[in-house]
Amino acid sequence: MLRLLLLGVLVLAMAVGSVDSKHNYADALTKSILFFEGQRSGNLPPSQRMTWRKDSALQDGFYLHINLAGGYYDAGDNVKFNFPMAFSVTMLGWSVIEFGNDMGSDYQHALDAIRWGTDYFLKCTRLAYKNIVYVQVGDPYGDHACWERPEDMDTPRTAYAVTFKHPGSEVSAEMAAALAAASLAFKSVDDPYSKQLIDRAIEVFRFADTYRGNYSDSVGKGACPFYCTNNGYEDELVWAAAWLYKATNKAEYMQYVRDRIYSISKIVTLGTIAEFGWDSKHAGINVLIAGMFKNEEKPFSEFADRFLCALLPESHDRWVDYSPGNYFLHISIFKNNKNCYNLGGLLFKAASSNMQCVTALSFLLVTHGRHLINTNRPYYCESRLTDPRRLIQHAKSQVDYMLGTNPAGMSYMVGYGKKFPQYIHHRGSTLPSLDKHSKPIRCRDGDGWFASKQPNPNELTGAVVGGPYPDDFYPDNRHDVGRSEPTTYINAPLVGVLAYFKAHPK
């Protein structure tokens, strides 16, 4: 029996050794930022590197006599949804703040990606002092009924606003958070712009907090069922206040966070401990605040510690699932507690576009893990003293899976590695560029290209797709939207994580 067991361990170890877990994180970082150029709306600059994309939606807001050109298309469609866009910009800002020193030549490109979003948000919030904030451009029903390039759009470019009569606290607060985070990212390189951003962030937060309400109710079908808010707006208000405190160091914002953190967490009853993304900021708030203080800052450090422990595959109280993945031996670095675990799978939290959970939660694992290491603060997971490097190690396993260390042997980032998705659900990537097909492609003219068995003609380099099914199977089919569609909020948290692993590959 012992011989069979040892043989099994040897075979397992050989199988692990056959999987290439060495990845070029620098290359992946460059491409993850380049992706945002493929999502740009508006008048593209001379520095545009993804050259198959051209100017688009230059008349956004024109019928209202306001300039709303710019910003990002959120995914494979041609709508500008400010709620997920603002979260993406916030995460890009946080990535530069935490890991900018690790980005090298990509640092400026990361700042460019942030500015493309914040320049647009400055336009959207120009009337915030009058309690008017624009939160979306493009009728989603008209847009989703067509398969056409953003350069050819002839669908309604309806501009949606929230006001004091029809508020939208969550989207307004997220935009305030994005502006505040960006102000910190630009503080050392463009101080006047940084001041402009923080001043506007304060004004937008005032509006969001004073006139409270769900933007799903105010915008109606423009928001739902696309980006409905499912857990209210309180977490976005606290999230924005946390960023304003980090950017201004004003005690009033910290007090705002303290007064509300228990009411929004509800850890035991609602299980929100493992939530972080464009619609849920609970875990992010705790990691952000905990990272501002050298010593343990209750309750934020406690909440962050518990949240991260709940993500580990070996945790008895974990809130997430894992795919079967590649089974391999792992000696846990819980002190005085060595065991073997199956840690080969991909984290699963969402039924669709699951990679958004993987990248967002990996960002928090690395950020908090690094904070624990730098402050030398003891970390307890389920009452066991644990090396915080375990958190970073787990995030690395998720990034490596994404980049190709998985049963399919494929990267889920377009353009990275030898095998990656060829049939992503993305209008601009699917249809021939203006360079190749100069005539307009109208609403239903693109159906033939969508149904084509040929790979997408334009490579959306750096795009991370929604990812495989829970059994590790990926169909690579543009009809399977939940698996094959890339989004800005999948890529944004990944930028910081890749920057860290570029500098610390082992």
Automatic annotation (TrEMBL):
Signal peptide extent: 1-21
Record bears the keyword Acyltransferase: no
Name of the featured protein: Endoglucanase
One Pfam match: Glyco_hydro_9
Domain Glycoside hydrolase family per the UniProt entry, residue ranges: 25-498
Top-level taxon in the UniProt lineage: Eukaryota
Family the UniProt entry places it in: Belongs to the glycosyl hydrolase 9 (cellulase E) family.
Keywords: Carbohydrate metabolism, Cellulose degradation, Glycosidase, Hydrolase, Polysaccharide degradation, Signal
GO biological process, one term: cellulose catabolic process
Gene Ontology MF terms in the entry: cellulase activity
UniProt xrefs under PROSITE patterns: GH9_2
Keyword Signal (UniProt): yes
Organism classification: Eukaryota, Viridiplantae, Streptophyta, Embryophyta, Tracheophyta
Residue numbers annotated as active site: H425
Catalytic activity: Endohydrolysis of (1->4)-beta-D-glucosidic linkages in cellulose, lichenin and cereal beta-D-glucans
Listed EC numbers: 3.2.1.4
PANTHER family: ENDO-1,4-BETA-GLUCANASE (PTHR22298)
